[in-house]
Structure formats: structure tokens, C-alpha cells
Amino acid sequence: MRELGLVGAIAIAAGVGSYYVTGEFGRFGQVNVALGGLALALYAVRALGRMRRLGGTPVARRMLTTRAALLVAVVAAAVALERGAARLDLRWDWTLDRRHELSPASRDALAALPDGLVATLYYDAEDPRIRGTRLLLESFATSGRVQVRERVLDDALEDLDRFGISSSNSVLLEVDDRWELVGRPSEGTVWEALERLRALERRTVVYYARGAGEGNLLRSDALGFSGLAAALQTEGYRVRDLVMAATDAIPQDAAALLAIAPERPWREESVALVDGYLAGGGGLVALLEPGRETGLEPLLERWGFETPDAVVVDPASGPIEGGAPGVNPLAHAYDRDHPITKPLDANRMAFFLGARPVRAARKPEPEDRLSVLVHSSPRAWLSRDFERIARGLPPQDRDGAPDDRHPLASAGRYPRGEREARVVVFGDSRFASNGHLRALFNLDLILNSVNWVAQRAEGRLTRRPNILTEIQQPLTPQESLRMFYGVGLLIPELLLMAAAIAWLRQRSA
Length: 509
Description:
- With 509 residues, this protein is α/β, with parallel strands linked by helices.
- It has helices spanning 2-22, 27-54, 58-87, 104-112, 130-141, 157-163, 187-197, 226-234, 268-279, 297-302, 386-390, 442-453, 477-488, 490-508; strands spanning 117-123, 146-152, 170-175, 178-182, 204-210, 237-243, 254-260, 283-287, 305-306, 311-313, 330-331, 333-334, 350-351, 359-360, 369-375, 381-383, 407-416, 419-426.
- The protein is globular and about 100 Å long.
């Protein structure tokens, strides 16, 4: 009987623990809490039956008193621990990605703003969301650079009209004579507001190529790149288009040029313009696709990159409904010495969709520096079975080489006189589309690449807070990882149960 109660307690603890680890009360947690509660209920029923059989004997009273005292002591200790931690302002973030700690980007944004930043929470007393928002604002307040205030909506009618506050749980950020309203507070939305308030050193221009079927930064559905354009604007860029076939020079104010997977090959004249732009110290971010000739391949080869026309097939892939299995790598093998990927680590993955390899093959000149930014897993291989992949079937052909890591993105820096050219090449473009930009840490990877190519301050190469969007896949990479983490807790849970049962039986022997 005692085994049943102990197993139930362990199951409930594992279910609740999964919530703190993953940030969501998923099926793993729900099943554990339900089964654990059932086990404890059966234990309680059997214990009461045993007490009833023993009746009012001294043995029964001692047993009941001991159990009740133990229960009261455990509850009292838990309450005392919680109250003591609250009084001492002690906190523990048990989530896998430290989601309750301010990201480096949030801290950098606060440090860049002048003193006197005020965050005001406008709320209705009956709104249950304000508890989470209060905790969020307390996290910002611990930096010492934010003063947090609260106002009830009914007592702030003048502010409602002045700032356009339309609902409870809204946060107003004010500094000097500027303000930003955050209608759905999260660290990500507050960070974006701070970035808009931030006094940027200068607003630089990023051009994106169009005219040959490149990714559309004005398109707002899952296949478009309007989210990338909005993120660049938040970072302080002006985003402008550039019709490559109709221009005779890359504009002088270009901090970087984006080339997002042209569907048709660029003209040789356009490729020559980009080559000259780089020779003069320009910056290029190229997003390629397997099975598609862009005309950029010879240019990239001159700058030291090899881009074989194949698909990286990696067992460590995320499931996409209707997609071929194995061709959507979940990558976490970063170059931790490169500024672009230094803020990321093995627990902060990037998600690619049908990527071609991008090898940092050779240095055009001795002083040049080429690096692989992110690899697949060591079990990956290459396939050119584009037809089966397009039909959602697993690829069958392979080049016969042993499984190996394959580079999914590479970067190069090229000192040229007093200036330095920089190039970043990805073997995939859809990882930065609206449907996947916010998947895992794709946003950080692409924005850090643009900032590095544009030679922005090192503080711009950072890890940003998560910002949710409405465009999601039926099973997102985040959900896949949460399922993985939940199942990963099952093994230690079962081992703990087995050890507890063995301990009880040995004690009773």
C-alpha cells in the first residue's frame, strides 16, 4: 500500500516538474498528475479502510497522529520555504531555455536607453493576466533602470484617451518625451517597444534584391518574408528593394544586400555588380535553396564557398506535416567563437527546411577568414532525390560517403584595403520566412547575420526574447522539443519509482 502512495507522489512531482521545465502543462504532465492523483486516492481509500478495521485502538490513534503530523509538517515546510523565498526575493528559473530570465537583448536595450524609463501597468483588478505581467515588470525593474508603476483603468481615464489604451493588462513605456504602448505584454513585445524607443547611433539601409523571383518582404502569409522586414526595422534598419536587372550600381548607402533564393538565375551583369560591391567592402547575406540555380553560385565560389546542389538529410530533423522525413534539420552545432553564433548554444537550436550544404572551402586571399556557422548532426548525408522530396517521400539515393556533419550556413570576412567585405550564406531560405522565422532561434541567427554583415556594434549580435506569432505549423519545432523533453523525464521518473519501491521493501524486510 505504501508503494502505491509513494509512486503516486513521484508521478505528481514529475508532472508538475515537467511544467516548470517546459513552460507548458502538456500531455506528459497531465497524464502523470492524473495517474498520480488516482494512485494517491486509492492509497487513501485503503488507508482509511485499514484504520476502520483497527478501530479506536491505541495503535490506530498513534498511526493516524503520526501520519497527520507528517503531512502537516511537510505542508508547513513548503509554505515556509515559499514565504521565505518571497521575502528574500529569491527566484529559480527551472525552464530549459531560462525563459524567465531577461535575455541579453533586453538588457542591452535597457542599457542603451537614457535614465528615467518608466513602465506603467494599466489594469482591471479582476484581470487574472496582471500577475504574470507584474512578474515580468519586476524582472525589468531588477536591472535598476526601470521604474514600475501601476494604475487602475477606472482611475486613469485621461491616460486612456491620451495614449489610446483600450484594454486591461497594457504597459506604457515612457522615457524623455517618447512613449510606446504594449498591448500584449511579454518579454518579446516589451523588448520590441524598447528597441523603438532606443536612440540608435544611425539608421542604416538594407536592400533586398527582387525581380528574379526572390523572397518577398512585403508578402505577409506563411511563405512571405514580411516578418523579417519588420524585425529588421525593429533593429533600426530602413528596408528598401532593389531591382537587380534595372540597376547599374549597388547604392552607396547599402549596409547590406539580401538575396533570398532567386527562382531564376541572375544576369551576369547583376552578379558582376555584387562582386564589385563586395570588392569595395560591401556586405551580402545570400539564402539559397537546393534544386534551384540562382546565378550566385559562381560568385560565392570566387569568395570561397562551395554550394553543392543537394539536400542535407539528417535524422535529427523536425517533423513537418506533408514534408519528406529527415530533410528539416534541428541544428545546434554552432561555431561558438564566431560573433553571429556565439550567443547560441546546444540548447538553442535552429530549424532548417530542405537545406543545401554551404562549405567554407578556401580563402581567396591569405588574410581572409571563413567559418562554418552551424552544422548538421554527425549522422547526416546528402541526397539529390529532389522529386521524391518534393512529393513528401523519404529520399533514397545517397552518395555512398559515410555519415558526416554538413555545414548549413557559413560566413566569410575579407579585408580589402581600409574596408572589409563580409558574406554570410545559408543553404535554406524558408527558415527565415514568416512561417518559421520565430521557430526556435531562427530569428537570432538571421538578424545576427545581417548585423554582422552590416558591421553593426557587437551588442547587436545577441540573443533575443521569444516573440510569438500567429503563423504556426501543425506541429512546430518548439512543440516537438517539448514532447522530447517530456519523454526525457520519463526515464528518471521510472528509475526513481523503482528505487523508492526497493527502499520501502528493504526497510520492511
